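FW: tagging you since you asked about this chain on Friday. Here's the raw sequence from the shared folder, copied in full. Didn't touch anything.
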Amino acid sequence: MIEGCAVASVLGMLEEREAAARVRVECLREEAAGLAAVLEAAEIELDRRVIARKGLVEALAVSVAGTTAVTEAEQETACSPVPGSVVPPWRDELPVTVLAPHYQRILRVLEGRRSAGKGPAKAKELAAELGLGTTPAKVEGVRSKARRLAGRGWLLLEASGMFSAGRQPVAVPDAGSSA
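HL: got it, structure written out here
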C-alpha cells in the first residue's frame, strides 16, 4: 500500500503542476491580447497623426501656391514624386509618375481590377491587394490616400464608398482672380 500512495502522490504533484502551468498560460494569453489591443490603438493614432501632418502640408502648399507665381520649370520640379508629397489635381498632361509611389500602387491595383473585369473596391480590399493586410490602421491609411486621389480627380469614388479606376477633371481655385 505504501507503494500505491507514492504513485498517487507523484500523480497528484504532476496534476498540480499542470494546473499551475495552465493558469500561467492563460494569464500570458490575456496579457498578449491586451498588448495587441494597445499596439493596434497606437498604430491607429500614428496613422491619424501622419494624415494630419500631410493635410497641413497640403493646406500650406495650396496657400503658398496662391500667393507665389510659379514658373513652368518650378512646376515640373514641384510635381516630382517625393514621399509625403502633395497629390496635384489631375490634368490630361500629367503622367501618373508625378505621384508618390504608394499613390501609383493604388492606381495600378484599381486599373488592374478594371482590366480584369472586376468592379470597384472597398478600402479593405485595396489594402489586402496591396499586401498591407486588413488591420484597421492599414485600411484607414489606404482609404485616406484613395480619397485624396479621388478628390484630386485621379480615380473615382462611388456613392457606396468604393473606389474605381477613372479620371475626372476637378475644379481648381483660380489663384490669379481677385474679387
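FW: Residues 69-79, 175-179 have pLDDT under 50 and may be disordered.
HL: agreed, and The CA atoms of residues 32 and 109 lie 35 Å apart.
FW: great, closing this out.
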